[in-house]
Design a protein that fits this description.
The protein is α+β, with helices and mostly antiparallel strands. It has one domain. The protein contains 2 helices and 2 strands. A two-stranded parallel sheet has the order 1-2. Strand 1, helix 1 and strand 2 form a beta-alpha-beta unit. The longest helix has 16 residues. The relative contact order is 0.21.
Length: 71
């Protein structure tokens, strides 16, 4: 890892996610590198990140063969 890197734990917002975050936190500490930063990101309002992604509005572009493509 480059100097002053940030390690981000982005696990599920549940007990198992908290356990895994603790494992990652300990692994970062075991490196002995004081320049590394550790951050935790949890999905806000959802249990897991997949639900966050599915809740995002999606933009769809319609295909209209009757309208010519202009560059």
């Amino acid at each position: 890892m480059p100097v002053d890197s940030e390690i981000v734990s982005a696990m599920d917002a549940d007990a198992d996610g908290a356990k895994l975050t603790d494992v990652v936190r300990k692994a970062v500490a075991m490196t002995g590198r004081l320049d590394l930063r550790f951050a935790v990101q949890e999905p806000c309002g959802f249990k897991d990140w997949n639900d966050v992604l599915r809740a995002k509005p999606q933009t769809f572009f319609s295909y209209r063969p009757d309208v010519p493509f202009v560059t």
